[in-house]
Amino acid sequence: MRDPDPRTVQQARAGDLRAFEELVRLYQAEVFRFAWHLTRDRTLAEDVTQDTFLRAFRFIHGYRGGQRFGSWLFAIARNCSMDALRKRGTVAEHDEREPRATPDASTRAELDAALAAVSAEHRDAFLLVEVFGLSYQEAADVLGVAVGTVKSRMFRARRALCAAIAVDDEAAR
Amino acid sequence: MNCRRAQPLVSAAMDGAYLTSAERRAVEAHVATCTTCATFERRALQVRTTVRIRAAEDVPDLTDRIMATVARGSARPARRAPRPRRPIRPRALLPAAAAAVAGIVIGSLVVGGPWHAHPRTAWASEIELGVRRAAPSIDAFQGSYTITERGLAPGVPVRTLSMDLSFLAPQRFRLDVHDDTVYPSKAWTPTNLTYVENMPAIYLSGPSGCVGTLQPVDCSSATTITKTRYSAAAPVPADLVVPLATLGSVDGVQVLGEEQVDGHDTVRVQMPFSRARPLFPFLQLGGTWRPFFAEDVVTVWLDTAGWYPVRTQITPSTDPGRHDWEMRFGLPRESPGTPILDVSLGSVAATPPDPSVFRIKGRAVVPPSEIGTAFGYTPAAPAEPAPLSLVAAIAPPSGPAAPTSVLLYADGLDYLRVAEDQRWSGPGPFGVIGLDAEQVTLPHVGPALYEPAGDGLGRRLSVHTPTTDLYIESNLSRDQLIAVASSLDVRAAAIPQRWRVAHAGGLTLARTDPIDALHTMGMDAATLALPTGYRPTTATRSLEQGIDVGVTVTFRPDTGAVGSPVVLHMGTSRDAADTAPDPERVSIGATTGRYSAGASELTWTQGGRSWSVQGDLVLAQLVAIATSVLEARG
Could you tell me if A10 lies within 8 Å of chain B, comparing CB atoms? Predict the structure, then answer.
């Protein structure tokens, strides 16, 4: 995940919409992907992405730069996703319109199924670290947990996903 | 080292976590000899590859949609979140972003915001919706402006004034105008004005009005102070906060495009001065101001997030009739390229103003708990005023046409007043309702008379019942006003016949059905070249000693916008066509007509009858209507 120019963040904090737009362009795809993984619903993920930036703009004056801007944004996105799922009153369900263009579509499908099966806590940590490249400390900031917790959740999620690939490997034999 | 201990360390190492050198050596040694852990590591890397490599087209570009929402939702000062019951399609989901979402133009959107490419047709409805939606959502507003006026008089070619506006819901406004002009002599009275409106009461301080006059001696040099305990007028400065009266309907408004003005993203619109008067509230409060021609061009740069005017300019119209008008006011030829009035917003603040700046002594507000006893009756109230709510009950001072009670409902800038008089015995409907008011039917209530907004008043209804008379005035849309009024707990009686007739000199004016009146004229509305959206709303017959001497049909925009009416008159006398004070000969097909720029009226004779069409339209539009009348009558 890229970091923004600090001047852009500073300008956005001062209410400059054009600077904020630069931040939106830089992060909207990542936020959407994260929201899609959390909600498993493309439409909901779009709404969550929009809501995330709306909240970010509203509270950007409170962002002091103590953490990476992306981590701060992801923390908002996660909260927005949880709110959206609560409002909808259902847990995340599989959406057939999911992003699935990967080099290995069958492996991808297995992983998606496995990822849906792991607990939300483990999945969130896995997404932040493995998919979006956050460090354990940054993921811990987003999730509001200790670094050690992120570390153990990562391992459990990774183990579950490796097991899914193992089933796939064996079925292919 | 065993598998249970090694695999978490393999996982942590993959993520760049710190391992001691001892841990690292131990893990490497274990994985080299353990097929389970080696497989775990290989599969973990496979998972990484699979989840990290993505095709870019998977993800929609939501930038414009997000920015439209962010801009609309955040830059507006002190406004509440929009109500979900009035959803607005995100501007960005209109063509540009729809294409982006479909993956067609990803990467081709220009820097500066794709909403800058918003089509003008979409902007028109966006402005109308945005303004209507903003009005109830605003709770506070503070703006500082600079007014530059040119052409007041030869000795005062340019004036500069500063203006401060404060608004605090419900229905509290303050407008201060300070004249910074250096005048050539003390004969000139600076236009320093203070206007305060606090729900029912108004306070005005300033030189008495000299609107349209050029000689300073005509104006009173003494400051006049007006205090009114009850005002029936619409809030005067409201359109500077959100131009609901001007742009709540965009009929007749031309969208020119988007521009950045003083750091604001704006959309630029244009309309004639006659349609934009509410944007210049200071002109009607007193002091000295230069005159403006009805067709002068008003350009407004409207903030696309807050929907308040950032800049407003008046430039002289190119209409040929303006020359006569200039001569009448002793003005030189004015160039259409030079603004004659410029109102620029210098700063806008989100903080609510101090409530004490709206203080007016002697306000006659009745606490809600005393409404039942204060008036001696329970005033008629709408059962469903929502989203507005009751903010004040007022006992106005008694007077010949004063109501005995007024209930004020408000929501942000939106307001609705229900004035009541249980002893009304006037010659016409209760309230400011003319003979040409349109009769409408309020569901659950019955017949009522409706007048569109104009002349400093909002849209209004008069309801007559066997026991009381009600006058409802509001800046809500026509449909919203009728919906709220339909929930009044009264049953209306038929409009008294005597209210359908007025006497003026020896002439009797009687209301009649507008469609019948058009048939009497030998035409129907479809054959007339009226401006878009205009329809016949009312008609009157003129009688002299019981004999028909004329028929008048009034056409209004069907949206209830602040658009002036178009009035078509057919008289039996040829002489009536020659009454205009400053006629100019104009060709209407094969006929010659007379055009009065001052009255904005075109007259002609045809088949032994006199005809006139009058309205705040350009001459070409009046000629088009006249031509269609000539053609309809063969």
Answer: no
